[in-house]
């Protein structure tokens, strides 16, 4: 594999490889059963009239070997946007070459250029290699916060609740 690593924004033509990288990540995280995204879903979310997320691809010799999928959130306390990194993944054969760090550095640069107050993400608590990597970069765990999520029937039920 070439040592020529490049980072670039994904294009509409990259949707199939982005979906495959998502599936590869899900396999790594033991969550394959949760992936139901389709190429059409991703094309609409990434390149439709309203773009909900962006993707950076890491390529080795022109071949995609990793990605970062991110979107903007907002800090009311700071009064400024932030970047939320939804997924970061580098294929096993490309690891150990600084690709993950380069993806995070590019996201940090984007955050600074866009005047974002922060760059944040979640990591599975069993993923010690990633946790160690993030700490070495200076990232701080937000242990006092608990993530809550509504999906499926609970989301539908709340959406249809009479709230006025």
Count of DSSP helices?
A: 5
What is the share of helical residues? 25-40%
CATH T-level topology: Aminopeptidase
The CATH homologous superfamily is termed Gcn5-related N-acetyltransferase (GNAT)
Secondary structural class: alpha+beta
How many beta strands in the DSSP annotation? 5
- The assigned CATH architecture is 3-Layer(aba) Sandwich
* Rg over C-alpha atoms, rounded to the nearest angstrom: 17 Å
Query: What general form does the structure show?
Result: globular
Largest beta sheet: what is the strand line-up? Answer: 1-2-3-4-5
What fraction of the residues are assigned to beta strands by DSSP? 15-25%
Count of distinct structural domains: 1
N- to C-terminal distance: 59 Å
Give the CATH level 1 class. Alpha Beta
pLDDT averaged residue by residue: 95
Write up this protein.
This protein is an alpha+beta fold and 164 residues long. The protein has one domain: Aminopeptidase (3-Layer(aba) Sandwich), CATH 3.40.630.30. It has 5 helices and 5 strands. Strands 1-2-3-4-5 form a 5-stranded mixed β-sheet, sandwiched between helices. A hairpin with a 2-residue loop joins strand 2 (54-60) and strand 3. It starts with a strand and ends in a 5-residue tail after the last helix. The model has no long low-confidence stretch (mean pLDDT 95).
At a glance:
With 164 residues, the protein is an alpha+beta fold. Helix content is 34%, strand content 24%.
